[in-house]
Write a structure and sequence with these properties.
Blueprint: H1 5-22, H2 27-31, H3 41-64, H4 74-85, H5 89-108, H6 112-115, E1 118-120, E2 126-128, H7 132-146, H8 158-172, E3 178-184, E4 190-193, E5 196-204, H9 206-213
Parallel strand pairs: 3-5
Antiparallel strand pairs: 1-2, 3-4
């Protein structure tokens, strides 16, 4: 079943709670590595806080018609994350709380008409503003796992996981990669990823399928116990 606007808003709220709860760490905990190569947990918290501010720019655009890009440049985006990673723990988590609260308040104020206003993402895609909750839900749900505090894809709702798999397959199908058929043994859903070489069939629980598709650690094995073709990280 295709995801709905209400679904995305629900997932964004759930993911926000998961992420902010997992990020409520002391200084040593935030300084520890995340599961993303080269990033501490502080880098990841700064990224998610900055993303809330950036999406807030698009909410402002939708509400007022004033063009306000997510970021002024890729360099500014990267510099903001580095600044955040250098903040004291209390200051960083306060930024996270403030930015998420401001995003929630600004989106709650949008009218039905404003939700249909076109805005431009950081990747240059023009989308209606009602895509913003889905964009945010991906950030907070997936990065809650990337913090490495024990949250896994199994902690996320099946309907979100299925929607995320649809989204990832749609993107990966446009890029070079291995040919895969992924079958969720617990829900009966499947995804076909066109690519190079002979198709590999991977079967397992939906949460493991999602982890594999997003380039995260998973427990899937190829038929006969062989290695699973590697996928680059997504998001």
């Amino acid at each position: 079943m295709p995801r709905t606007f209400d679904d995305a808003r629900r997932w964004a709220r759930l993911g926000t709670d998961l992420f902010t709860g997992a990020a409520a760490l002391d200084a040593a905990g935030l300084d520890a590595p995340s599961t993303l190569p080269g990033w501490s947990r502080k880098h990841l918290v700064a990224h998610v806080a900055a993303n809330a501010d950036a999406l807030g720019n698009l909410v402002h655009w939708a509400a007022t018609g004033e063009r306000t890009p997510m970021y002024s440049s890729p360099q500014e985006r990267a510099a903001g994350i580095e600044r955040g990673a250098g903040m004291p723990a209390a200051e960083l988590t306060a930024w996270l709380r403030r930015s998420t609260a401001e995003l929630a308040a600004s989106t709650a104020a949008l009218t039905d008409t404003q939700w249909q206003s076109p805005v431009v993402t950081a990747q240059g895609r023009t989308v209606p503003a009602d895509e913003l909750p889905w964009m945010r839900s991906r950030e907070v749900c997936v990065h809650a796992i990337d913090l490495g505090t024990g949250i896994t894809f199994a902690d996320l709702p099946d309907d979100f996981l299925a929607a995320l798999c649809d989204d990832v397959v749609g993107k990966r199908a446009q890029e070079p990669g291995p040919a895969l058929l992924l079958e969720a043994t617990d829900t009966g859903a499947s995804w076909k990823l066109p690519g190079e070489g002979e198709q590999t069939v991977l079967a397992g629980p939906l949460h493991e399928i999602t982890a594999c598709l997003t380039g995260r650690a998973h427990a899937l094995t190829s038929p006969g116990g062989g290695s699973v073709p590697a996928l680059a990280r997504w998001l």
